[in-house]
Amino acid sequence: MNIKSIKQFLALAETLNFGRASDECHISISAMSRNIRHLEDELGVALFNRDNRTVVLTQEGQKFLKYARDTSRQWNLIRHELTDNSDQLSGEISLYGSVTASYSFLYELLRRFRIAYPAIEIKLRTGDPEHAIAHILDGKEDITIAARPTNLPRGLAFKPIAISPLLFIAPLEQQVPNVPTNTPTTPEEWANIPMILSESGVSRTRVDEWFRQHDIAPLIYAQVTGNEAIVSMVSLGFGIGVVPKIVLDNSPLVDRIKVLDVQPELEPYDIGLFALKKSLKNPLVEAFWSLM
Predict the structure, then answer these.
(1) Global pTM?
(2) With respect to CATH, is domain 84-162+270-291 assigned 3.40.50.2300?
(3) Which of 128, 97, 48 minimizes the C-alpha distance to 272?
(4) Do domains 3-60 and 84-162+270-291 have the same CATH topology?
(5) Which CATH number is 166-267's, of 3.30.420.10, 3.100.10.10, 3.40.190.10, 3.40.50.920?
């Protein structure tokens, strides 16, 4: 077992696709398959269940994944300590954020970071912001950008960037009778309006609490992954939704949306960076963290 086989395992564990993993590691698919089998032979267990269509981590593979991530992180640290003879940091850090976060916050952060630390490679992944904290806790990424939950998990560091109001939005023009363009005024009105909400996360928690406080049983039309999809469905007249203002401001559909004046307002998004506290000992992570 060596660090190359560890990194190849990590690539396959994250992509669950031999083609994408081999491209990421700059080797052939046959070499990737051979190296993974050799690693499994060394460990004496199967790390993946695979057939012609799917690749899935076994129970043993999931256990090994934590070890592999820790090992890769420690390898990067010791390599930097042993080989760096200058004041310039070098290596790789991984970031995760939504598409909106990428061009709202990360663009300027990455621009400044690249100027300050040109030798540090940045691995950026985009996806649902509701998964951001899980990516940190699972060790998949070094830093993520997302909204702060009410209760911050132990061992997690948070650094605020901005505040974004959480808005109720409706279609600009009424397209179906039960989806109004004006703010509902009674619990009965609210209960008859189709709602388009996030499946989970900070936004869903806060809107559920808002409905509970007003004794409203909402009519949920759709539960969606990703705030951008909520804006899209609302613009088409499927229902009323709830999204952070930053998402609406950056949406190409903003001209088809009306913001409802709902009182009391939902608690706003406290957006910022997340990292494991122990990861801040990594000089590369600390460099990005301190740039804020």
Answers:
(1) 0.70
(2) no
(3) 97
(4) no
(5) 3.40.190.10
DSSP E strand stretches across the chain? 48-50, 55-57, 91-97, 120-126, 143-147, 156-164, 166-171, 194-198, 219-224, 240-244, 257-259, 269-276
Token readout for 271 is: 């957006």
Architecture of domain 3-60: Orthogonal Bundle (1.10)
List the chain pLDDT tens, one digit each, 292 residues: 788 899 899 989 988 999 989 998 889 999 999 999 999 999 999 999 998 888 999 999 999 998 898 888 788 777 766 766 556 777 888 999 887 887 788 888 888 898 888 888 888 888 888 888 988 988 888 999 989 998 889 999 999 999 999 999 999 887 766 677 788 888 888 989 899 999 988 899 999 999 999 999 999 999 998 888 999 999 999 999 999 999 999 899 999 999 999 999 999 989 999 999 988 988 889 989 988 7
